[in-house]
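Reminder to self: keep the SMILES exactly as supplied, no canonicalising. Ligand is flavin-adenine dinucleotide.
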Amino acid sequence: MPAALFSDLDVQATTDAPLGATTWYGIGGRADLLIKPNTIEDLTTLVKRCDRSGTPLRVLGGGANLLVADEGVDGIVISLDSPVFREIKYNRQGEINTMRAYAGADMPKTLMDVTRQGLAGISQLAGIPGQVGGIIKMNAGGTYGCVGDAVASVTCITKRGELVTYPASELRFEYRKTNIPDPVIVAATFNLEPTDPIALRDKVKEIFAFKKSTQPLADSSAGCTFKNPINPVTEERVPAGKLIDEAGLKGQTIGGASVSTQHANFIVTQPGATADDVMQLLALIKQRVFDHAGLELQTEVVIWKREEEGI
Ligand SMILES: Cc1cc2nc3c(=O)[nH]c(=O)nc-3n(C[C@H](O)[C@H](O)[C@H](O)COP(=O)(O)OP(=O)(O)OC[C@H]3O[C@@H](n4cnc5c(N)ncnc54)[C@H](O)[C@@H]3O)c2cc1C
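Structure tokens returned for the bound complex:
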């Protein structure tokens, strides 16, 4: 890896860095190079240089939706853990109530902060782990709504290293994806609304309790493994968990990876599991659901493998 890409930049660079172990699955290999930029300027320079030199670039969020292959990943993995990328700023003037959160900010902590202040807008994210950047990238959400419902704008770095801000009117937040074309999300501004803090806290608690009663939140997982596929006849999404359950796969185990008995769309891992166990189980589930229901499942979990293009 040419050190010329980053040696003059204000970054912390670690070679052969643990990566899989830092994800919510807690399994998988290492990053050839993990870089934590300390400034936005140096991050933009690094992105531009990676593009010009054809160096694969991946952005790590909270690792809550990520499976890293056992052999690890090549190129550069960026982590937005420096203080500048974890900042949260409020703008409360008269009718205006917005929050600008940088991409490395922890979303559950941010939700706690706005809830304490009696600011409504992102309670639909209760119980969803991740950083602001990863939450935006995946348009995380569920029964109660998605993050896109509250977004006023998103600031990104283009491949060429330019900072661009997209207003909500230019953004499309769809089921677990957005139309953001750029490799790095740097920050997002959220519309919030002052409300009764007690009622808001109760709402957040209610949403969290609902999630806890239906999903194995205490186990190691990456949340829902597959997207809910569209039934071509009804043109409606069918819960992937229902299809996996109907294919008789609840509790199915390969090595240290199992289909959760509580929610069949969660693959949970035991200590000693490998990423390969999870990948084999993914392949088995896809095949069995196709054989049983004729529907093709697509992974919601992002899989990083060596020598595959990042992001
Ligand atoms: C227990 C559990 C429950 C969950 N429940 C839900 C749920 O109810 N609803 C839901 O939608 N999800 C759920 N998830 C999945 C996960 O919380 C979301 O997908 C979340 O958005 C992941 O964010 P992250 O920061 O951890 O991203 P990561 O897992 O680190 O990365 C995911 C993707 O986002 C990209 N990315 C991350 N940060 C950036 C950035 N700054 N710029 C550009 N790209 C970036 C990564 O490159 C990768 O492609 C759950 C996960 C767990 C473990």
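Points to follow up:
The first strand starts at residue 11 and ends at 18.
Helices lie at 40-53, 107-116, 132-137, 197-214, 240-246, 275-293.
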